[in-house]
Amino acid sequence: MKRFTRNVLVLSVAGVPLMGWAQTSFALEEQTLANPDNEPVPVQPVPHERQLKWQETEFYAFFHYGMNTYTGQEWGYGNEAESTFAPTAAPNPEQWLEAAKAAGMRGGIAVVKHHDGFCLWPTATTTHNVTRGGNDFARNTNIPRDFAAAAKKLGMKYGFYISPWDRNSALYGTDKYVSDVFLRQCAELAQYGTDQFEMWFDGANGGDGYYGGANETRSVDQSTYYDVPNLRDSVHKVCPDCVLWGVGGEARWIGNEAGWAGETNWSPQNRGAASNANEYGDEDGWFWLPGESDAKGTNKGWFWHSGEAPKSAEELYKIYLETVGRNATLILNMPPDKSGSLPAATVNALRQMGNLLRQRLGTDLALTARCEVSESRTNGANRTYDAANLIDGDKDTYWATNDGTTEAVITLTWDEPQRVHYVALQEYIRKGQRVKGFKVETTANGSDWVERANGVECTTVGYKRIVPLNGSTSNYGSGFSVKGVRVTITDSKACPLLHTVSVF
Question: Which domain holds residue 239?
């Protein structure tokens, strides 16, 4: 914050007559202007820094691997013999992440303990782990160690899925399970890297299970049982940028496993809200709870099953547009097989997906456009709010209007026609989510404007909104030849703030 000074008369002797002022001393007193950069007031709630970094990951992989890979189950009962876990080769997390990176993903989450309670690392909390596996490949497995090392080697983000529900543990449902098993397991995983970006806690909690041979049904209240405040504090002390998903209460399930978010999608929501609102968030929510969409990239279950096939690159691309393109993150599941590696068909589908992302969303035409706006906020001492900030490629600069202005027009123009398919908008969400309505138009000749994205709900923007100009997420189409794109913000909770407008 810039400091300004003013001269202040200070009398060296109290009561000096006016004629003696020439002999008095002067001092400089520093005063701070309240808002020298003229920054807009935040619209609450706003994200924590770790939530911002998490959202910027955008697209990352889910790797369901474990006991279920070898039993053919989706939810193991917890009574499986440890020797059943018997990889036919050394599990290869580096191969998983290489395939994810080729798809354009920026990180991955490895399942290291599912509901059956079997742990894919040599934990001190239970004997139901890899050290008692069925062969040397199993007994030498340590997925958290190898996954973290591979991610760091490849320059990717990483984290772990650990099921709070444990159908194997005799302690589940008692106070001792939380303190002696679950929290200790989370602490062990936190030690595999202080730079983890997410710890994933499934919402499935309680039900029938083996429970050390009791073979009964046990119920818990997940809102209180897992001592979440202590869990958050303990993990954040070791991993300050780690978002606790689901039970952890720092990001929300988008509400389905079908790979789509609502076209209207607010990041605010209230913890404990009805699940049927998860795809859309809550404009008036009290907490910043951005949505994550978990989706299957194959045609069977979350775990690998014989005969499964990956979805086509076009199907995966559609999922991307309907999640990342609608203010959510996408965690796309691709399960390793019994060898502990991704099947060749999965690797190929991910590579093709990456090719589509690069071909269709890799060249931002806005960077070569002229950008004009109907209004720019008055600049501050160290920050500007000009139209140029929208196309400078810098997420830390942004365009804004003056306080009280909630409608505005952004116009991009080129001298030569451009073939365009999408317009992408990104709000400066450090100061909250604001935009409630907008429309997109194009012009082929520079004077006659046609509204595009017919049938699309052009309402919220949030972290990122990708708008298909032909109105379809499933048909890329031939695009439109344009010399101009116009975005009109029709409604906003407060003065709109956008850091980037892109055209593809």
Answer: 49-361
Q: Into how many domains does the chain fold? A: 3
| Model pTM score | 0.93
What are the tens digits of pLDDT across the range 52-82? 999 999 999 999 999 999 999 999 999 999 9
* 3-state secondary structure labels for all residues of 81-146: CHHHCCCCCCCCHHHHHHHHHHCCCCEEEEEEECCCCCECCCCCCCCCEHHHCCCHHHHCCCHHHH
* CATH code assigned at 123: 3.20.20.80
pLDDT, tens digit, for every residue of 290-301?
999 999 999 999
Length of the chain: 504
Same-domain status, 107 and 206 = yes
Q: Round to whole Å and give the CA distance between 496 and 40.
A: 9
Q: What is the CATH number of the domain that holds 374?
A: 2.60.120.260
Query: What distance in Å separates the CA atoms of residue 28 and residue 8, rounded to the nearest whole number?
Result: 6
Which band of pLDDT confidence, cut at 50, 70 and 90, is reported for residue 21? very low
In this structure, is residue 222 part of a structural domain? yes
Looking at 309, 344, 361, the residue that finishes a domain is: 361
> Tokens 């806690």 correspond to what residue?
201
**DSSP letter string, 313-334:** HHHHHHHHHTTTTBTEEEEEE-
Mean pLDDT of the chain: 93
* 104 and 234 share one domain: yes
DSSP 8-state secondary structure symbol assigned to residue 244? E
Same domain for 167 and 85: yes
Respond yes or no on whether the N-terminal peptide bond of residue 45 is cis (omega within 30° of 0).
Answer: yes
Read off the amino acid at residue 337: D
Which residue, 181, 221, 182, is CA-closest to 201?
182
Name the domain boundary from 339, 361, 383: 361
Strands, E assignment, 124-274 = 157-162, 198-201, 207-209, 216-218, 243-246, 252-253, 268-269
What burial class does residue 84 get, using C-beta atoms within 10 Å of its C-beta: 0-12 exposed, 13-18 middle, 19+ buried?
middle
Is there a domain that residue 44 lies in?
A: no
